[in-house]
Design a protein that fits this description.
By secondary structure, the chain is α/β, with parallel strands linked by helices. The chain is built from twelve helices and seven strands. It starts with a strand and ends in a 9-residue tail after the last helix.
């Protein structure tokens, strides 16, 4: 069987010193499954808009809601697996200071060790007949630091040492513009980062942007559908690097962050729907624009408003998009 591993990161360990965490994610998918995903997405995209990239950071207007909602739901029922690694930057810098290693060198060391650990977990079930290609999101530093060569060598050593016998056919960088696999990693990593950092929570941040409110609506409406909550927990395994007395990798519980988000979002939505319901009672014959403006929503929040309207009228937040 032919497999591909896709690797991406969020946050640069030595470039974002003010950031609390750096994130690294890898996805494995068989080439047969990826071909199936590409084929079936073509049946989804024509009904939404022309083929375009999926990037969680670029989801800033909910007129793209239908595309992201349907495609992410589809990914959750595809045969893919993701390992995501969280590094506490402050602890990493403390360790590098104690070892007299500058931040650039620290990042170089993490670049090799973290992808290696992420990939190991994804390849444990492979066998001698399997081959693996590794694709890294395009980054000039990977070539400068010879990340491709080092990771390929270590993965081959892992295959031999563990007596698994899979073969690494190559490792290269690619632009996400033309790589669906890298876009899948980007979307799910973006969602996890959003939840871990509580970017949805007005009590955890000085200000919550309209964009983050829109992203919250998208994530919540995906999670409440069918078995999606359990599915995302099964698809994504979350790990933390901890710098304790003996630095180690600790398995984290994604459901903890999901539950915290759902509790907050449910409370937020109840307040908003109560406002909308009162407006409907006071002004029963007004158009959608009237209600949107009265709710203080921008144009980019129209689908959020319509979702509230569907839940009040039909008991289903995603009634319109599930027809």
């Amino acid at each position: 069987m032919l497999y591909t591993i896709y690797f991406d990161e969020s946050g640069k360990l030595d470039k974002n010193i003010d950031s609390t965490y750096s994130y690294y994610a890898a996805l494995i998918v068989s080439n047969d499954e990826l071909e199936k995903i590409n084929t079936e997405l073509k049946e989804i995209y024509p009904n939404i808009e022309r083929d375009s990239e999926l990037h969680f950071a670029e989801y800033k207007n909910d007129n793209h809601f239908e595309k992201y909602y349907k495609v992410i739901k589809y990914f959750l029922y595809s045969d893919i697996s993701i390992n995501l690694f969280v590094v506490n930057n402050e602890e990493a810098f403390e360790l590098s200071g104690a070892m007299n290693i500058d931040n650039s060198k620290l990042r170089e060391l993490f670049y090799v060790k973290i992808p290696e650990r992420l990939f190991y977990g994804l390849t444990r079930s492979l066998n001698r007949e399997d081959t693996v290609e590794i694709i890294l999101d395009k980054n000039d530093e990977y070539s400068m630091l010879q990340v491709e060569e080092k990771v390929a060598e270590q993965m081959t050593a892992h295959s031999v040492y563990r007596n698994i016998g899979y073969q690494i056919t190559g490792i290269r960088s690619a632009s996400s513009d033309n790589s669906l696999g890298l876009q899948i990693v980007d979307v799910f990593m973006g969602i996890v980062v959003f939840l871990i950092e509580e970017q949805y929570n007005k009590y955890a941040h000085d200000k919550i942007t309209t964009t983050n409110i829109i992203k919250s609506d998208l994530i919540y409406r995906i999670l409440i559908e069918n078995n999606n909550f359990n599915s995302i927990c099964e698809k994504i395994r979350l790990f933390r690097w901890e710098n304790g007395e003996s630095s180690q990798i600790i398995r984290d519980d994604l459901s903890h962050y999901l539950n915290k988000f759902i509790i907050y979002k449910s409370s937020f939505d109840i307040k908003e729907m109560n406002k909308l319901q009162k407006l409907n009672l006071d002004f029963p014959d007004e158009n959608t624009k009237f209600y949107r403006e009265k709710m203080g929503y921008k144009n980019q929040q129209l689908r959020m408003l319509l979702g509230y309207k569907d839940e009040l009228e039909n008991g289903n937040r995603n009634f319109f998009f599930n027809q």
